[in-house]
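Practice problem: predict the structure.
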Amino acid sequence: MNKKMSVLFVALTILSGLVGGAIAVYIFSPKVTVADEARSKVLTIEKLNIVDKNGKLKAIIRVGEFGGGEVVVFSKDNYVAACMGTLPSGGIVNVGTKGNGSVGLLSVGEFGGDVSVFSKDGKIKVDVGVNELGNGGIGIWDKNGYRLR
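Answer:
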């Protein structure tokens, strides 16, 4: 084999390697379609736990007890500070404080809504709402739990 044939042989070997590599990348690389791009923008899960950098739970997004969505937010001290979810015929927002449970509650249902405020011992103190007949009402309780109005 002369020098000219050797150079041609090396050139053809390099060229065939490059062409073969390009064809392999084309054949074996994953194909991205428009549907894949749209799907990659949506996260579908039943429950999402959100944690801080130390792994401490800070929020939960999940399917709630009544089959609707629910969001639970925890304070820095890890108590439930707020919760928003669904009821069988409406929605509810609940706000709490450390060690005292619920202190504020807003619920809306098929027949009306209700706002309640609780004392630190968990007893209802004020309630404003609308009943199934469309009538508004206000309830006020004293420190012993007796209804004043």
